[in-house]
Amino acid sequence: MDGTRIAVAGASGLIGSALVRSLGSDGHEVVRLVRRAPRGPDEVRWDPERQEIDAAGLTGCTAVVNLAGVGIGDSRWTEAHKKAMRDSRVLGTATLAEAMASLEEPPKVFVNGSAVGFYGDTGARAVDEGAPPGDGFLASLCVAWEEAAAPAQEAGVRTVFSRTGLVVSGRGGAWARMFPLFKAGLGGRLGDGRQYWSCISLHDEVAALRHLIDTEELSGPVNVTGPEPRTNREVTAAMGRVLHRPTLFTVPAPALRIALGELAGDTLASQRVLPAKLLESGFSFAFPDIEDMVRAAAG
Question: pTM here?
Answer without folding.
Answer: 0.94
